[in-house]
Specification:
heterodimer; A: about 400 residues; Rossmann fold; SH3 type barrels; 3 domains; five-stranded parallel β-sheet; 8 helices; globular; B: alpha/beta; 12 strands; about 40% helix; binds pyridoxal-5'-phosphate
Chain lengths: ~400, ~375
């Protein structure tokens, strides 16, 4: 099958339409470029049943589908709703809830992309003869002699390549990000020009299915009673108590419920067995290295090599919208990768995606999920002062 | 846009006579209750439509056509007329009725009525009338043909049997799916009430009617308001919709034989093409016969929801069962009620032909369907 990047080969494309302005314009652009497209919204969560964000500006709620439907009609393309509720529950929600119960901070957008949008949707569209998937993500795909390259979006503010590191070489030719080369302002301008009703629609929040607090959601959907525990410092002294580890994320500063310290406190570690949350000052968050698992190597060379066998220098981004920091990465025999900060460091949150960019910080080389602390070892692990050992050394 | 409609049970293309009627409509302000000539003209349109529907359904003078906003309202009204003023009693229906009948039955159950439901077997046979049905039976609502499978039910025989056991029972049938595909005469079927819908027979959407034997059913309006429709239905009449239903009724009446001959031939065509092009499909045949326009078929290994989309992208309108208002697919209560499992139901599509279609169009539609199935299977 020929790549979809060129409309002239008659590529049939399914556009995932969330009801937001970005995917609206994605559909508009592809249609204008002469692709044969269908717009599809993914029914992933029953907002009426589970509560959620129907009343707010989000994505994938029933009112968003109405917007998407109207945009599709305006653009002049067919539009359908595909039901992925069961799959989403299993692949995204359950993992989300499980992670929090394990004291790990999940990244549901990555899961949704990897397991639903670019897998199940792609598969379903393929059966209908639509071999490519387009979304409104701010990221770019380029081709070279060597293969296909995934790059940051043109608009540095909006770049979403962080969530897309799971794309594989063979998928890139059949993936389109029509707004990746535009700024958000340009996207809105275009939407306005074509009278799309989503032109002024506010941004969606990151976790589309959670309204209110994550902790409350995890407790309610997980159906488990939340168990309180102690908040301790790195010396093990009890500073306070908490109502459940699902309310915490490593690196988090606000809402710890501990006061009276001179310096602000951060969550350093979460221990699911003892239900202890360890807090400390910012410098205690510092790590020299850490491990990443469930890796995908995107760039042609690394995809072929199965990752860097020798340490290579990269820009590692450990959180959406955080600036990356210089680091080295190399793969280990067990399939994980070891990342070492070169000079600056940034908090390492188990469960979050760590995405590797090339030295110029534009191309996605690969990425994975930050490994959780070995149970109970908390601070010792990979800590610069603690002489801890990383998962592979 | 050019498309082939194999989803006429959800919505029928406007008949040519309806289209030319609408094109000629002068657009004058019209309220049939007005005294002036504008009102008179509207009144004439409505009464003409009533006559035409009465002619199509061969209604004796005691029967009145009460125009409604559609079959949903008509079925709701039927339940209301039959149960209002009665504290309790038994209601008989089938498990495969349209949701508006099932929901009306549920509502009545909440008000003290006992609901008994005839189930349907896999071959389309309705379970026999329970032996213990007696004079406590207040109301029976039994559809003439099912909109998803096309299967016909022996409503006349049931009506006779019910009459002999419960002489005061009010008999109703939703004949929406059957209308146009065969000659229907509610009075000859021993029915007291019958429901029809406009957009299923090439009239406008948003109009329907309840046929009522005024000697057997007391006049009441579900909506509170003015004395329209001789107090059977309050609210200013949907003049254009009603007129369109009249025009469609007239055309169908004049061409009923031709329609029936064509549909019977086209059914054989569809079945034969299914056998040739898609030999591994399973047709839901009916022991008691079916309306010729409708064929329910399982395409093993092809999720119907996907097949519907694939077909649409190739210009064929078809559906996986009843039209889904929520946008969220749910497996058919009709097929599940017949004892088919969820997989079977999720792989079942409904071919429902229009009343006036060229053989070549039907043929082309079947070819597109086969192409879609081939694509879907090839991709697996
Ligand atoms: C058998 C049957 N009854 C009732 C209805 C409801 O009709 P309406 O949309 O006119 O309310 C339908 C429409 O799908 C139908 O098929």
């Amino acid at each position: 099958m020929s790549p979809a990047q060129d409309a002239s080969n008659g590529a049939k494309v399914v556009v995932a339409m969330s009801g937001g302005v970005d995917s609206s314009v994605a559909a508009l652009l592809l249609h204008e470029q002469g692709y044969e497209i269908i717009g599809v919204s993914m029914q992933v969560w029953d907002y009426r049943q589970h509560g959620g964000c129907d009343s707010r500006a989000t994505c994938c709620a029933p009112s968003d589908f109405m917007d998407a439907r109207q945009v599709a009609a305006r653009v002049g393309v067919p539009y359908y709703v595909f039901d992925f509720e069961e799959l989403f529950r299993h692949e995204v929600i359950d993992r989300f809830v499980e992670s929090y119960h394990a004291g790990v901070t999940p990244n549901p957008c990555v899961d949704c992309n990897n397991r639903v949008k670019f897998l199940a949707l792609r598969e379903r569209a393929r059966r209908m003869g639509f071999y490519s998937v387009a979304t409104g993500h701010y990221a770019q795909i380029e081709r070279s002699e060597a293969g296909w390259h995934l790059k940051r979006g043109q608009d540095g503010e909006k770049d979403q390549s962080y969530f897309l590191y799971g794309l594989r070489q063979e998928e890139l030719p059949h993936t389109l990000f029509p707004v990746g080369g535009m700024t958000k302002a340009q996207v809105r301008e275009l939407a306005r020009e074509f009278g799309l009703k989503t032109a002024e629609k506010p941004e969606s929040q990151d976790v589309c299915f959670v309204s209110g607090s994550v902790g409350e959601f995890v407790t309610r959907i997980g159906g488990r009673k939340s168990q309180g525990g102690a908040i301790v410092n790195s010396q093990g002294e009890i500073l306070g108590s908490h109502e459940g580890i699902q309310n915490f994320t490593v690196g988090q500063r606000r809402g710890l419920g501990v006061s009276g310290t001179a310096e602000p406190l951060y969550v350093l570690a979460i221990d699911r067995t003892s239900n202890k949350v360890t807090v400390g000052v910012r410098s205690e968050l510092e790590r020299e290295s850490f491990s990443v698992q469930e890796l995908n190597w995107v760039s042609p060379a690394l995809a072929t090599a199965g990752g860097p066998q020798e340490p290579i220098e990269v820009v590692a981004q450990l959180r959406y919208r955080n600036p990356g920091v210089r680091a080295t990465v190399r793969t280990c025999a067990d399939g994980s990768a070891e990342v070492r900060f070169l000079n600056e460091w940034t908090p390492v949150t188990p469960g979050q995606a760590c995405v590797f960019y090339d030295k110029s910080n534009t191309e996605v080389l690969g990425g994975g999920r930050i490994l959780s602390h070995p149970v109970g070892s908390g601070l010792q692990w990979g800590h610069r002062q603690g002489l801890g050992r990383t998962a592979c050394s | 846009m050019d498309y082939i409609n194999f989803d006429a049970n959800a919505g029928h293309t406007l008949l040519s006579s309806v289209r030319s009627f609408l094109a000629d409509f002068d657009g004058a302000a019209r309220n049939p209750s007005s005294v002036h000539r504008g009102g008179q003209a509207a009144r004439v349109l409505i009464e003409e439509a009533r006559d035409r529907v009465s002619t199509l359904l061969r209604l004796p003078p005691s029967y009145r056509v009460v125009f409604t906003s559609g079959a949903t309202e008509a079925n709701n009204l039927a339940f209301y007329l039959a149960t209002c003023g009665h504290a309790a009693g038994t209601i008989l229906t089938t498990a495969v009725e349209h949701p508006c009948v099932l929901a009306s039955a549920d509502h009545a159950a909440g008000h003290g009525f006992q609901i008994r439901s005839l189930t349907v077997q896999r071959n389309g046979t309705l379970t026999p009338l329970p032996q213990d049905i007696g004079s406590e039976l207040r109301f029976a609502s039994l559809m003439l043909a099912n909109n998803e499978t096309g299967h016909c039910f022996p409503v006349e025989a049931l009506a006779r049997a019910i009459r002999s056991k419960a002489p005061h029972c009010v008999l109703h049938s939703d004949v929406v799916a059957a209308l146009g595909k065969m000659a229907i005469a509610p009075a000859e079927l021993r029915l007291d009430m019958a429901t029809i819908s406009g957009h299923k027979v090439g009239a406008l959407t948003g109009v329907g009617a309840l046929i009522v034997d005024t000697t057997r059913v007391q006049c009441r309006s579900l909506l509170r308001g003015g004395p329209q429709e001789l107090r059977w239905r309050a609210g200013t009449e949907n003049v254009l919709g009603i007129a369109s239903l009249g025009v469609a009724a007239k055309e169908i009446h004049e061409r009923q034989d031709e329609i029936m001959k064509r549909l019977s031939r086209q059914r054989r065509m569809v079945l034969q093409m299914l056998e040739e092009l898609l030999p591994d499909t399973i047709v839901h045949h009916a022991a008691n016969g079916a309306i010729d326009s409708t064929i329910s078929v399982r395409v093993t290994g092809c999720p119907a929801d996907d097949l519907v989309v694939a077909a649409d992208t190739r210009g064929l309108h078809i559906s996986s069962g009843a039209a889904c208002a929520s946008g969220k697919p749910e497996s058919s209560h009709v097929l599940r009620g017949m004892g088919f499992d969820d997989t079977h139901a999720s792989e079942t599509i409904r071919i429902s032909l229009e009343l006036f279609m060229d053989d070549s169009v039907v043929e082309r539609g079947m070819e597109i369907l086969a192409e879609c199935v081939a694509t879907m299977r090839g991709a697996q």
